[in-house]
Amino acid sequence: MSDNQAPSTPPHTGIEAVDEALAGLDLSGPVAGHPALLAQAQDVLHAVLSAPVDGSAAQ
Description:
Oligomer: single chain
Radius of gyration: 15 Å
Structural class: mainly alpha
Number of helices: 2
Number of strands: 0
Order of helices and strands: HH
């Protein structure tokens, strides 16, 4: 793959919400719409990374 060629499939992280956000990220349209699409994906990443890990809460 050359430096300016997008991958044919989005990466798979194993985290369903992140995988869906990456799969839905279509930057082939007008550049003016890219910030909104990237912000949506960033919101998903922030939510996933901010969520407590199961079993990690102090008792």
